[in-house]
Amino acid sequence: MSNSVIVTRDGPVAEVVLNRPEKHNAVDLSVFEGLARAGEDLKRAEGLRAVILRGEGPNFCSGIDTSLFTANPDPKALIGKILELSEGESANMFQKPCTVWQELEVPVIAALTGVNYGAGLQIALGADIRLAASDTRLSVMEITWGLIPDMGITTTLLRLMRADQAKELIFTGRIVEAVEAAALGLVTRLCADPLAEARAMAQTIAAKNPDAIRRDKRLVDEAWHMDRAAALRLEAVLQSEVIGQPNQLEAVFARIQKRAPNFR
């Protein structure tokens, strides 16, 4: 894996780090490939309970590295990559670094600071939870390059905000400050130290029944836009897979006995 994306592991929690601080963690091909590979590897990681996404240095991600434009003066090759799908994939190579986090069964928490523009915002939107510092600034900035946002934003942004609000941000590319971002739903909440908060939250999640947590994520992701009957049925099916199982019983006994649970 390229050094532009680093994965570390602390017991049940993994951290995925965008590691190009000298470029404000701008996304080049190595970052596209590194994030996608990291996500796929974490799908198979044993004992994983939560993932944290963060950027090295003061900025989460400033967006696309402009060298991608200057290094590819002929758009035909780029268009070919945009339209190409690997076998079994629904996302192309540019969408995968953002959408792969939705494919993980465990919660993904993004710790946001500084600039989160264009590709950076779309990567963050792929997380389940976004914790942001007061200096965080966000923008759907693709329009400034004459482009549309095409890194999976249709599977993320439209779940978070009204269509007219999304259109305004997409049409104008304006920069949104942290307080407004929280009000709009672009970030989950603001905190003084997003990384410390993300690590604490990840450990809290890791201490819960992993069978329930995985199904919690699936329940919200799938049921949020289902019709009433399908959503209620999904609740029942997922609960039937959890209730009475060893980890669920361990949660009950640990609570009654006032001790830390020991999940498998």
From TrEMBL:
<keyword id="KW-0413">Isomerase</keyword>
<dbReference type="GO" id="GO:0006635">
    <property type="term" value="P:fatty acid beta-oxidation"/>
</dbReference>
<protein>
    <submittedName>
        <fullName>Enoyl-CoA hydratase/carnithine racemase</fullName>
    </submittedName>
</protein>
<dbReference type="InterPro" id="IPR018376">
    <property type="entry name" value="Enoyl-CoA_hyd/isom_CS"/>
</dbReference>
<dbReference type="InterPro" id="IPR014748">
    <property type="entry name" value="Enoyl-CoA_hydra_C"/>
</dbReference>
<keyword id="KW-0276">Fatty acid metabolism</keyword>
<dbReference type="InterPro" id="IPR001753">
    <property type="entry name" value="Enoyl-CoA_hydra/iso"/>
</dbReference>
<comment type="pathway">
    <text>Lipid metabolism; fatty acid beta-oxidation.</text>
</comment>
<dbReference type="GO" id="GO:0016853">
    <property type="term" value="F:isomerase activity"/>
</dbReference>
<dbReference type="InterPro" id="IPR029045">
    <property type="entry name" value="ClpP/crotonase-like_dom_sf"/>
</dbReference>
<dbReference type="Pfam" id="PF00378">
    <property type="entry name" value="ECH_1"/>
</dbReference>
<comment type="similarity">
    <text>Belongs to the enoyl-CoA hydratase/isomerase family.</text>
</comment>
<dbReference type="InterPro" id="IPR045002">
    <property type="entry name" value="Ech1-like"/>
</dbReference>
<keyword id="KW-0443">Lipid metabolism</keyword>
